[in-house]
Amino acid sequence: MIKKFIRKILGVKDQRDPTEPVVLGAAEHGIDPKLLSSNAIRVTSTLQDAGFKAFVVGGAVRDLLLGVKPKDFDIATNATPEEVKKLFRRAFIIGRRFQIVHVMFGQDLLEVTTFRGAGPANAPKDEHGRVLRDNTFGPQHEDAMRRDFTINAMYYNPATQEVLDYHGGIADIRDKTLRIIGQPEARYREDPVRMLRVVRFAAKLQFTIEPSTREPIPVMAPLIDNVPAARVFDEMLKLLMSGHALACLQQLRKEGLHHGLLPLLDVVLEQPIGMKFVTLALESTDNRVKAGKGVSPGFLFASLLWHQVVEKWTAYRAAGESPIPALHLAADDVLESQTEQLALQRRIASDMRDIWSMQPRFERRNGKTPYKLLEHPRFRAGYDFLLLRCASGEIEMELGEWWTAFYEGDPNEREQLVATANAAPSGAKRKRAPRRAPRNKTGAAASESTTSEE
Ligand code: ATP
Ligand code: MG
What we know:
By secondary structure, the protein is α+β, with helices and mostly antiparallel strands. The chain folds into three domains: 2-175, 2-Layer Sandwich (Beta Polymerase, domain 2); 183-261, Orthogonal Bundle (Hydrophobic Seed Protein); 271-448, Orthogonal Bundle (cca-adding enzyme, domain 2), CATH 1.10.3090. Helices cover 54% and strands 9% of the residues. The chain is built from 24 helices and ten strands. Strands 1-8-7-2-3-6-5-4 form an eight-stranded mixed sheet. The longest helix is centred in the last third of the chain and has 22 residues, at 297-318. The protein is elongated, with a radius of gyration of 25 Å. The chain starts with a helix and ends with a helix. Residues 426-454 have low confidence and may be disordered.
């Protein structure tokens, strides 16, 4: 109803001709030109001065229409990658499946993409219908058709301040609807990662997933298994680092989409014991992202998978292994079970291992042991992780408090702390300290670690 009404006001026909965009002027779309980066304007105007078409496209237009300052700007043009490269001093052609040009101005990176043709029908595919390479160029309306969602298929020309809308994206933005372009099943088959993108955008933007966009997902989710693990990892990282990770995971669960999308999600969302821990970890990550601070993927994945590690660690100990080797075996199992679908880069996996394997070492507070641990290059991350375990109620607060005092203490205080820890009857350490106000402290601390990590 509302959509029809808006379409009527905007003069959008219900039966749109997908080759002809609706063109909206500044007064109609209301984009504030101040939200545009000067480098985005530099790229579009350079291309236009050279006789090419050039627009800001995709997520940036969506964010501009929502009144949000885009975090990055993608540019679409009819110039080929080689033609683009010639126009800028620092420009690099990258990508295989999808060739694009990176244009750099200092630290600022802009992605410039040549309009893609409707191609998928002829593009090379795997046996499940997933498009393997897609570098056929084509007219702008075909480029719009190949984009994923209506709200991601709009083009903004900074020179004229016009928005070109090919698929009713403006109406969907106003209606807070996430709608895939074209036939949903076909689009998920071409690229199953779009199913993860649905969830990310719905949660991040707090949009409703339009029913025919949502319906095929539970059935088609297993197709994600055939996507190269590195790509799934990239998309998963975007989801987790969107500043709305917790909302994304809750949304996945609410939509019943967490089954079979990724083993990681099954693990995280199916275990009520781990949920408190994961919730705290994600809350802290989201706050950090929103505050514009860096986030360490190692810390994040270590948190998400911790309870699976604990479960296996307990099992190995019950089978007679001593604690530290048991933990290593558990870590190996968990990392192995994930990497089939999620290519955890080696550096990230090694950060995860470091964080996990430090945990039993925090229990040892005699002699030189705590001093040695303090010198561990990943100490800060391991310590933040420990605080998270305390805050979630997994272990006693006392241990975290002791380590905070030790970490912050001067040499005398440290000596004292080691002496008291050693003097305390072992039973005293086991007693559960009252759970009080750990959240903020842990949240802030967990975030700290991430800076030192990056
Ligand atoms: P964000 O703000 O998170 O970067 P975004 O929409 O810009 O969101 P990107 O991954 O940067 O997301 O992609 C840029 C644009 O490229 C999208 O807006 C969309 O038009 C198009 N796109 C990206 N991935 C796909 C895909 N898998 N299938 C079709 N179109 C895609
Ligand atoms: Mg983007």
